Amino acid sequence: MKVFNNVIEMVGNTPMVKVTNMDTGPCELYLKLELQNPGGSIKDRIAVEMVEQAEKQGKLKPGDTIIEATAGNTGLGLALVAAGKGYPLKIVMPDKMSQEKVNNLRAMGAEVVQTRSDVQKGHPEYYQDMAARMAEENGYYYVNQFENPANVDAHYKTTGPEIWKQMNGKLDAFVCGVGSGGTLTGVGRYLREQNSGVDLVLADPAGSILEPLVNRNEEVEAGSWLAEGIGEDFIPTICDLKLANTAFAISDKEGMQTARKVLEKEGVMVGSSSGYLIAAALRYCQQQTEPKRVVTLACDTGNRYLSKLFNDDWMRSQNLL
Ligand code: PMP
Where does the signal sequence lie (predicted)? Predict the structure, then answer.
């Protein structure tokens, strides 16, 4: 067994497991366990790539402070990388995100600023606008996963090829969500280059603007949803939404209950966004008339949501039980 030189080397090469106790119709459904990254989510991959590219391009130098706008997981990935490389880290996140993520970030030495979840892009208290402004005023390096091509590169170079190899080149569909769009764009491009017939399926929380765009080319006003890390009120610069050939709008109830069922039936403790992804993947599988091989992601660990989706009182308070 491999012994690593440091924790950053342990990012990626995550295992895949077959879903065996849920209704996958005529299909085989596989979960790629991104929760097994050292920082507990898929975002470790982009944290490494974005920091290393910024260093190579001379945009990030020893002594600089890093700032990022995040639902939390990119922050946790950056906290690993920043600690390893000695950069101070500031995180701006919307206040709907779980307290576990905030505590975890603070324990790792990051300074966390929480801002409003009920405002949209362009508002001074929107998390991305706030991070950009703090960077401008204080000379921090703003990573900006929503506009940073290194985010897409990380998935094109690692997540995509790993999936293709693990499936032995036999893959019919990949299901993912969009937060920054890095996963969809990077994995999607790689997979389509291997097999142009691969279905790329978007799992979107009901209330997000993306599903109506993909399915009906319809522009809607953003609503609100409880999933952390997926669903958007704008299309991020790096996101190539046209890659998705179909989309499913998943309600909070279906998404959160699916996350709980995956733990109960499959023994994998996934976070909230993964519940929506797996719900969409199951629906896609159940609609098929031919057997297909489908992959989706366990994006992050459910440990970060013990006070929310795995807490009956919280579930009840949100009318999700
Ligand atoms: N799931 C979780 C838990 C996330 O934190 C994120 C990133 N915000 C995503 C899914 C979406 O991935 P991407 O940013 O690559 O679209």
Answer: none
